[in-house]
């Protein structure tokens, strides 16, 4: 029996300044055929048929009407962040595409930092640091 082809997921790229982190790309590869924006733009006709998902990492790639119109088999946009303010949800839903995100991904870290800042402020830790290390 022939191995079933994995669905395509569009990503900006892997690594570098704005690409998906390599460990996340490795996880995505287990479930998807990764298609970078460069590969998509070089061969839109063939690649547009394969892409069923877009993985948005650090608000990239930009989701606009032109991109959505070029992806007839798109089913879902997965956003790796908490908010979806950078996505036009009404426009996306007009294409019948679902949007997901990770709403609780950084809740604990945010609470930890908030508590640390409050404690540092209450105990005047930053002032003590400056007094003990003049010139820093």
UniProtKB/TrEMBL annotation:
Record-level Gene Ontology MF annotations: glyoxylate reductase (NADPH) activity; hydroxypyruvate reductase [NAD(P)H] activity; NAD binding
GO cellular component, one term: cytosol
Domain D-isomer specific 2-hydroxyacid dehydrogenase catalytic: 23-113
Pfam families: 2-Hacid_dh
Keywords: Oxidoreductase
Coiled coil: none
Annotated PANTHER family: 2-HYDROXYACID DEHYDROGENASE-RELATED, 2-KETOGLUCONATE REDUCTASE
Protein name: HPPR reductase
Origin species: Steatornis caripensis
Gene assigned in the entry: Hppr_0
């Amino acid at each position: 029996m022939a191995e079933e082809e994995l669905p395509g997921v569009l990503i900006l790229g892997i690594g570098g300044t704005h690409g998906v982190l390599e460990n996340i790309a490795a996880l995505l590869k287990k479930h998807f055929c990764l298609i970078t924006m460069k590969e998509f733009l070089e061969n839109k006709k063939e690649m547009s048929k394969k892409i069923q998902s877009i993985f948005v990492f650090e608000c990239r790639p930009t989701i606009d009407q032109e991109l959505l119109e070029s992806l007839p088999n798109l089913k879902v946009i997965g956003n790796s962040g908490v908010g979806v303010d950078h996505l036009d949800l009404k426009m996306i839903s007009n294409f019948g595409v679902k949007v997901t995100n990770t709403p609780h991904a950084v809740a604990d870290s945010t609470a930890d930092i908030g508590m640390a800042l409050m404690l540092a402020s209450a105990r005047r830790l930053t002032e003590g640091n400056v007094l003990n290390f003049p010139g820093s």
